[in-house]
Design brief:
Layout lengths: L2 E6 L3 H13 L4 E6 L2 H9 L14 E4 L8 H10 L8 E5 L4 H9 L4 E4 L4 H12 L13
Parallel strand pairs: 1-2, 1-3, 3-4, 4-5
Protein name: Response regulator
Keywords: Phosphoprotein
InterPro entries: CheY-like_superfamily, Sig_transdc_resp-reg_receiver, TCS_response_regulator
């Protein structure tokens, strides 16, 4: 059964590269991509055009911080405050290397902070650990 992943990324090229890397690594998944924070909130809350969405919660959310409309921090705050979403692992995938962004993300309960451009050697084991728990020793354990 494919894993349901949500990618929240406003840059089409970055979204495409991330999707290709997931496929290249052999992950069986149903990937949904949204391009801004407002759409992400609607998707997660089954609101707006996503009213009646039946796919269930994602097994993993990959979130950019710098998004139009609603930024990634606000999306992350929503995820961590919603009882139905609280335990979903969230990877930040951002071009930002600032200590402030990393610190704020960590305080909000991320599972992993990854910096673009993304290194396969860091991304693949982290995703594998979330999608295939107990399948071997990888990076830090996701928040559960």
């Amino acid at each position: 059964m494919p894993h349901h992943l949500l990618l929240i990324e406003d840059d089409e090229t970055a979204a495409y590269v991330t999707q290709r890397r997931l496929i290249h690594c052999g992950f069986t998944m149903d990937l949904h991509v949204v391009s801004d924070g407002k759409e992400a909130l609607d998707y997660l809350a089954c609101a707006g055009r996503y009213t009646g969405r039946q796919t269930g919660n994602p097994a993993l959310i990959v979130l950019d911080l710098k998004l139009p409309d609603v930024d990634g921090f606000e999306v992350l705050k929503y995820i961590r405050s919603a009882p139905a979403l609280f335990d979903i692992p969230v990877f930040i995938l951002s071009a930002s290397r600032t200590e402030e962004d990393i610190y704020r993300s960590t305080l909000l309960g991320i599972s992993k902070y990854l910096v673009k451009p993304l290194a396969m050697s860091e991304f693949t084991p982290a995703v594998d650990k979330v999608l295939n728990p107990g399948a071997g020793d990888a990076t830090e354990s996701p928040r559960r």
